[in-house]
Each structure stands twice: as structure tokens, then as C-alpha cells.
Design brief:
With 245 residues, the protein is an alpha+beta fold. It is 16% helix and 27% strand.
Length: 245
């Protein structure tokens, strides 16, 4: 299906960095030489920031925001479908970068996806270097940049991303907030993919954001590794689901 990446891990899906995509994904792992996926280890149980109740549904909190997805559509990022909104952003898409998000919970959710996915080594230094320098924040920002540079060098990732990501896919399916203030948001992004048996599996990654210098900035994960805040979940219960493409 267009806008999805698929991958095989010898019969099981591993969750890791890339919240993706950030492939962050948030989700399921982005990475690999020439844009093909390369699995990374699952998060260590009990690591700081890991998904609560991994292996089970995440309970909703009625006190947290309910998002309006009525103007949400999907944009192609080298074969990966990313949600966009004319009201919430991104309002600037230049040179494969994304910025300009509304100072709202939906703006934060969209920033989490668009910024985090662009901090993955697979997108190349042309994208991840300025993204991490300008759109990531926090004490672990230098560690994130160093780790992504190391991964890109080990995998001989071209400096500039061209063409489409290869292989079978994952998709973003929903968001769940843990905390929201006017200038800070903590949320989980859920992704879905089909494993080699055709079974749909889910993962969720924690992303913290801060409103700084007129836009949402992603707080770098502990130690600079998205794998510390990403894990498998049994379902999307408790998540606000994006409209299907």
C-alpha cells in the first residue's frame, strides 16, 4: 500500500528507534543502508520512558485533549505517509524539512511525527543534521546527534535521501496524550504493521515536546536513543485514531 513500509525480522517485529520513524516512529524501526529497514533491539524492560503497560492497552485519560482530525490529510515523505493539517501544520515544507506547527495539542502531535521521523539516520545528514540542531532540544540532544551520525556512518547512508523507502510497511495510526500544558506536551504515537504471518502488530513511542522560539521542539530521548522510549503494545485502545488514508 502506498505510504507504508514493510519489513521482516525473521517472523517477529522488533520495535526500536525511528519513531518511526522517528519511524519515533514512533513506532517501528526506520533505518538501514540505502533506505531499507534494519531492526534494532527492543527496549530494555523498565528502562526510563518506556511505554506504560507494554503488551497491553493504554488507558485513556478523560482530562486530556480530544483532537479534531476533520481537516487531516496525508502527505508523502519518500513513500511514508505522514499526517498534515492546514490549520495545525506543518506550514513550511522546504528541502525535505517540516516546521511551523500550531501552538495546540494537534500541532504538537503532528510535530512529534514530522520532526522525530527526520531525526533518523536513514533520512541522511542533509535532513537529520539541521533537524536535530534546530528542532530537537534537551540535555540529550548532543547524544542524539552523535548516535545518529554514528548509525549513518556504519550503514553508509547517503548524505541526501532520494527516491522512496524500500521494503514491506508500517503506518501511523493514533496518538495518546499523557500530559499537556500550553508549552509542553507528552504523548505516545502508535504505529501498526503486518508481520510475516499477516498479523497486525502495534508499537508506541513516547515523545516529549516543548514550545520554544515559536514552534514545537522535540525533546531528545534519554541517552539519545529512541529505543528507550518505544515498545510493543497489544492494541490501540486508549489512542485517538487517525483517519485512514
Amino acid at each position: 500500500m502506498a505510504g507504508e513500509r514493510r519489513f521482516s525480522t525473521g517472523g517477529r517485529v522488533l520495535v526500536a528507534a525511528g519513531l518511526v520513524a522517528v519511524g519515533i516512529a514512533v513506532g517501528l524501526v526506520l533505518g538501514g543502508r540505502g533506505g531499507s529497514p534494519a531492526p534494532a533491539p527492543s527496549p530494555t524492560a523498565g528502562a526510563a520512558g518506556t511505554v506504560p503497560a507494554t503488551g497491553g492497552p493504554v488507558a485513556p485519560d478523560p482530562g486530556l485533549p480530544t483532537l479534531d482530525f476533520s481537516d487531516l490529510t496525508w502527505a508523502d515523505f519518500h513513500g511514508l505517509a505522514l499526517p498534515v493539517s492546514p490549520t495545525a501544520g506543518p506550514h513550511t515544507l522546504v528541502d525535505d524539512r517540516a516546521s511551523g506547527f500550531a501552538h495546540t495539542p494537534l500541532g504538537a502531535a503532528l510535530a512529534a511525527i514530522h520532526v522525530a521521523v527526520r531525526t533518523d539516520a536513514v533520512v541522511g545528514a542533509y535532513i537529520f543534521e539541521p533537524t536535530i540542531a534546530e528542532q530537537a532540544t534537551g540535555v540529550d540532544q548532543p547524544a542524539l546527534l552523535e548516535q545518529v551520525r554514528t548509525t549513518a556512518a556504519q550503514r553508509a547512508v547517503p548524505a541526501r535521501l532520494t527516491g522512496r523507502f524500500s521494503g514491506p510497511g508500517y503506518r501511523y495510526v493514533g496518538v495518546r496524550f499523557d500530559a499537556v500544558t500550553p508549552d509542553r506536551a507528552v504523548l505516545y504515537l502508535a504505529t501498526a504493521a503486518e508481520d510475516t504471518t499477516g498479523t497486525t502488530v502495534y508499537a508506541a513511542g513516547r515523545v516529549e515536546l516543548r514550545w520554544e522560539r515559536g514552534d514545537w521542539r522535540v525533546v531528545a530521548p534519554p541517552g539519545g536513543s529512541w529505543s528507550t522510549v518505544t515498545g510493543r503494545v497489544a492494541s490501540t485502545a486508549g489512542f485517538q485514531l487517525f483517519p485512514r488514508r
